[in-house]
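User: Modeling request: complex.
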Amino acid sequence: MEKKLRSQGWFGKTGKDGFIYRAWMKNQGIPDYEFRDKPVIGICNTWSELTPCNAHFRELAESVKRGISEAGGFPVEFPVMSLGETLIKPTAMIYRNLVSMDVEESIRANPLDGVVLLCGCDKTTPALVMGACSVNIPTIVVSGGSMLTGKYQGHDIGTSDIWRFNDAVRTGNMSQEELTVAEACMARSRGHCAVMGTASTMACMVESLGLSLPGNAAIPAADSRRKVMAQLSGIRIVEMVKENLKPSDILSRKAFENAIIINAALGGSTNFIIHLLAIAGRIEIPLELNDFDTLSANIPFIVNLQPSGRYFMEDFYYAGGLPAVMKELEHHLNNSCLTVNGKTIQENYHSAKCYNREIIASVDQPFNSLAGVAILKGNLCENGAVIKPSAASPHLLNHSGKAVVFEDIDDYKSRIDLADLEVDETSILVLKNVGPIGYPGMPEVGNMALPKKILTKGIHDMIRISDGRMSGTGFGTVILHASPEAALGGNFAMVQNGDVIHLDVANRILNLEISEHELQKRKENWRSSHKNYGRGYISLYQQQVEQAHLGADMSFLKGNSGSEVTRDSH
Ligand code: FES
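Assistant: Request completed. Predicted assembly structure:
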């Protein structure tokens, strides 16, 4: 016997309740037959003109609707809070968990049988997937696609060039007028950042997990095939409802392992770690920070995209996209993992081809044998810290240097360019109080710009350590996510100017070279200096957010509550 549609708990009712559930929907001009045993598919839309990366999503939603209707479903589009990485202060990350709550409650509270998640700009993907996992009805992701490659003065550019432009302006090698021209040259089409930054990493993550149709990750936003992908996803979600294929059927531990392995080969964003941990927490799959290291240890870097490499997402699509990468990784992946189209990951990629070895290398001849992320341990980060070796300078991966400490972001901004700052290229810049609680919200400031007096020597990388994050478009020898964060008074809070720090990536060591006695003495005298917010969401966030090594989700949001609603509205 076919399972009763969840939506019929609303629209299938007779009497007063059925009248109320249907009548107000009919004011949109919807005929009565739409409410009779048709799968109701929600299109969860993060469209917003304040989220430029997702500003084309209403158009994309129309394609999804066409697919849903074609397959015999009833599409209903609904908005959720959107997170535009570039505009939101203090950082979009602080609202990721809030959006996940919005998504979770919107899905559960409404008469939906399945949901299509329209995801694009960085946090919109993990937030929507986290929320949907906590309800666990059939779900498919449609990504918005990346921008076309930027073109400036005869060069290809993308978001990673912002950091280079910034250094050039600060050292007098680029004018403000040139910088303004470069803005329009970089952002010349719809879509999200065109490098393997966090948005592209997230699009690859959902495809690796099996939550999107194959090929979804790399199609540029401006390519007409993006709309085809949206329409096909609309068709498929209706079938998924009939098959009762839910996220928990797809998101096994092995699927998470695949995502980690693939991300290593891509040189994906370090933000991947925090978001994947949070998603795993919602679907109740055990996953730990160390898994990211052990699973990616033997995976080479084979995708030549910025910021670790040279090319852009558009090039990646033409070279074969993610299925071609998966095919290369055939002997590393859990090939029997199920995906949203009802096929295994291997069935999906088996006919994939690489069309450009400059962009997707073979595993036998990779661009770099170092890939993925390394998880550092040591007395400076009792619960771990993260580095992306493929984006770091090889000569700094084993280094000892004296710490130049900034107590918070304001301290950093006020002193970084002072002529008398005691720093040279062997120093290690330490930025405290930019973690989940301390900032609050764990912003992307970890790849802090170097002191001007270092840049003018022609040096563009130094070791930088913080309890914050780095933009997925950033690069350099940057150690992130130090946990516990400074605001909690762990060892990281105790570093002082002139202390020697030792980094040894090969052996995964990050140590503060002071005696245990001195460390304890400093702890006894330590006083918290971060600001505590007294009201509203930020207050709740500071009270409930977990540390980076656990995914920075709220402790009370772990797990899921399913789709059942036990009380009627009237
Ligand atoms: Fe939206 Fe980069 S700012 S993806």
